[in-house]
Write a structure and sequence with these properties.
By secondary structure, the protein is an alpha+beta fold. It has 3 domains: 3-186, Lipoxygenase-1; 202-208 and 231-238 and 306-409; 457-679, Rossmann fold. It has helices at residues 156-163, 169-186, 317-359, 368-405, 477-498, 516-524, 535-558, 587-599, 624-629, 663-679; strands spanning 3-5, 10-12, 17-35, 47-48, 54-55, 58-59, 65-73, 83-89, 107-111, 117-122, 131-140, 143-153, 433-440, 449-454, 461-464, 504-510, 573-581, 605-611, 631-633, 638-642, 649-654. The strands form 3 sheets. Strands 1, 2, 3, 4, 5, 6, 7, 8, 9, 10, 11 and 12 form a 12-stranded mixed sheet that branches. The protein has a 5-stranded parallel sheet with strand order 16-17-18-15-19, with helices on both faces. A 4-stranded antiparallel sheet has the order 14-13-21-20. β6 and β7 form a beta hairpin. The longest helix has 43 residues, at 317-359. The chain is globular.
Length: 680
């Protein structure tokens, strides 16, 4: 039976290897502190946080996310530790909520390694607090217990750590916030939480290498954590404790960055007073009823399930494909984490055995030492080969699934070379997401996962025209800038193609006029709001109009007077492409740009920067928040993105139009024709 705790209640723990799972609905920071018998944190080395996620006996998440899984091995804690406090905090300086009263009540659950709940606690009653001690795991008469705490701090992490007796509390809080901001800047946003009855339908794999790693879904309406499920035919990674028995788990996370629930995407409700402006067309018809989910053919006994496109749950095929792609992404992340953990364990074991041999002088005489070394190396090779066999099996199944899913993707999710674009028609509804490229890991070069981001965009895009860390072949900075602008034009065209006529407007700032060739398809098809702005005057004009639009919409939303907006205001989603920054920008223009990046997404104004950060180095740290607020993409392959579960460094490949293809011009011609019909 699960103990549902209220504030101050405690419950005994019958096992020492545990996970604490956190679901919050918005990105939050999760950490832990170790305390002595007097409840004091002795130093920064007793605090686990995203910048330093591992301590003896525990590991926390490496970045902010809506869902977290923290691993604990209470037996491995130092004898001087008598209490472990689980901390939650809201990220600072990233434009999100600043108090827990503005977000859904966080839910925490203590579970065994098999996913079975031991105790749970919903942190209600929080208001102005931005940091909170959620739970305590503490020793009492030789046994461990968990207590629901719920102690909040309006002063954030600094006040929380100070209250626990840490002298360097404010300095550590600052370094934690910096590490979180850096992690959010490079992380691919996970899909939003789904209702408990819309979780992926998964079947346990019969040939898994060990106990399945549990997957914590978001809490349902009743506060319960979703049951463990596995994707059909894909063996899940082993438990993080399988190999070494120590708490060496990767900091797994799963959750969204505050995006709308996909189950409600096609059923918009009327906005309440003070809510966001509803940009939907009043005469647009609602979507047709969802088709029945596909049925997989019967699977022979002992064989993996045959992959089927759209086998995830959802209200429409589009949603099922979206959820399926994210399921594949998570499966590959966790499978690779299990493989790398197994290899690390094999390396560590071989080193320990060799150290033991070399530390005994008697083993250095004769052939005893050589035999011991050969035995250790053979055992190492056997363990690595076993791990690789499991990885190859999982990769084969995921590759087979990708080969089925890729041809079934709709235009918004498809590559530019997909045949689906030949039948493209301007949509009547905004899709759930958009493809911005592909992601793969070094061990899985032949398997790429589509990188899908939710619409509307919750953060701007930065197309980095600086040198890639993986491709030094492009030594010509002009060629790299041209590639970056080509990528920006392709992304803008895809955004235009994904929206109904009149629902998306694109502005361009090209102060030096150097991007004419890349912008030619957009300009010639007449899909831009106007000619690209050039010179300092053009920069000032575009930025002033967009900042005024943001101000007007914000005032209307806050005042509950959305109907009072000027009749000539363009209520479509707005995208501003800025090329060759900071050329043509003065200090006022830079301030306006930062304002658009921070405040624009909430009222439908989005930013796409095409820039080399080093060229803006003269502004110093003034622009650091700007770069962190944008999702960095590259025009060539680069390994700068991290997944939201275990934090692997993924190689990103941009979604570019194939050389010589006319698909971009054909799609934009249809967009332009639909815009002309809509404006009549």
């Amino acid at each position: 039976m699960t103990a549902e705790l209220t504030r101050g209640q405690n419950h005994p723990l019958s096992q020492v290897r545990l996970e604490v799972r956190v679901s919050a609905g918005k990105p939050i920071v999760a950490g832990a502190t170790l305390s002595d018998e007097q409840g004091k944190v002795r130093g920064v080395e007793w605090v686990a946080h995203p910048g330093s996620p591992t301590l003896p006996g525990l590991e926390v998440s490496k970045q902010a996310a809506a869902n977290h899984r923290l691993a604990f091995d209470l037996e491995a804690l130092p004898d001087s530790v008598h209490r472990v406090s689980v901390l939650l905090a809201l990220p600072t300086g990233v434009g999100g909520p600043v108090r827990f009263g503005a977000v859904a009540a966080p839910f925490v659950a203590v579970t065994g390694l098999d996913g079975s709940e031991v105790a749970s606690y919903t942190l209600t009653g929080l208001d102005a607090e931005s940091a909170v001690v959620a739970l305590e795991l503490y020793r009492r008469q030789g046994a461990w217990k968990v207590r629901a705490v719920g102690q909040g701090y309006a002063g954030g992490l600094a006040d929380l750590l100070t209250d626990q007796g840490l002298p360097e509390a404010r300095q550590l809080a600052g370094s934690i916030n910096e590490a979180v901001a850096t992690g959010l800047a490079r992380s691919v946003a996970a899909p939003p939480p789904r209702p408990s009855d819309a979780d992926r339908s998964r079947q346990a794999a019969a040939s898994g290498p060990g106990p399945d790693q549990p997957y914590a879904g978001p809490p349902g309406a009743s506060g319960d954590v979703s049951p463990q499920q596995t994707r059909p035919g894909v063996p899940q990674p082993s438990s993080p404790y399988d190999a070494s028995g120590a708490a060496a788990a990767q900091g797994g996370q799963s959750g969204g960055l505050g995006q709308p629930d996909p189950a409600t995407v096609t059923q918009p409700a009327a906005p309440a007073a003070g809510g966001p402006v509803d940009y939907s067309h009043p005469r647009r018809q609602s979507a047709a009823p969802p088709p029945p989910p596909p049925v997989a053919p019967p699977t022979p006994p002992g064989q993996p399930a045959q992959p089927v496109a759209g086998d995830a749950t959802g209200w429409s095929m589009e949603e099922r494909l979206y959820n399926q792609v994210w399921g594949m992404f998570e499966d590959l992340a966790r499978t690779m984490a299990a493989y790398r953990s197994a290899v690390d364990f094999a390396d560590s074991r071989m080193e320990q055995e060799l150290d033991k041999v070399l530390s005994d002088p008697r083993s250095r005489i004769g052939g005893q030492g050589d035999a011991a070394r050969e035995a250790a190396q053979a055992k190492h090779a056997q363990l690595v080969d076993q791990a690789r066999a499991v990885l190859d099996r999982d990769l084969a199944q995921l590759t087979a699934e990708a080969e089925v899913v890729e041809p079934a993707l709709p235009p918004a999710y498809a590559r530019w070379d997909s045949p689906v674009w030949q039948g493209y028609r301007v949509p009547m509804e905004v899709p759930m997401a958009l493809r911005l490229g592909d992601l793969h890991l070094p061990e899985s070069e032949g398997l790429s996962i589509p990188m899908l981001v939710r619409l509307p965009l919750e953060r701007g895009l930065w197309i980095d025209s600086g040198r890639s860390s993986l491709d030094d072949s492009l030594s010509d900075p002009d060629a790299l800038r041209r590639l970056a602008m080509d990528a920006a034009a392709a992304h803008a065209a895809r955004l235009l193609a994904a929206h109904p006529a009149g629902d998306f407007t694109v502005h361009v700032i090209d102060a030096a006029g150097a991007a004419a060739a890349s912008l030619a398809p957009l300009v010639q098809s007449d899909v831009l709001a106007g000619p690209p702005a050039v010179g300092a005057a053009g920069v000032a004009d575009v930025l002033t109009r967009l900042t005024q639009r943001v101000d007007l919409v914000q005032m209307a939303v806050r005042g509950g007077a959305a109907d009072a907006l000027p009749p000539d205001l363009d209520t479509a989603q707005q995208l501003l492409i800025v090329h060759d920054f900071p050329h043509g920008f003065d200090d006022r223009a830079v301030t306006q740009l930062r304002y658009l990046a921070d405040e624009g997404p909430s009222v439908g104004v989005h930013l796409m920067m095409v820039a080399d950060r080093e060229e803006a180095a003269a502004y110093g740290p003034l622009l650091d928040p700007l770069w962190r607020s944008l999702l960095r993409l590259t025009p060539v392959p680069d390994d700068h993105l991290a997944d939201p579960w275990v934090g692997h460094a993924w190689t990103y490949e941009p979604s570019l139009v194939p050389p010589g293809s006319q698909v971009l011009q054909q799609v934009l011609a249809q967009v332009a024709a639909a815009r002309r019909s809509w404006n009549r």
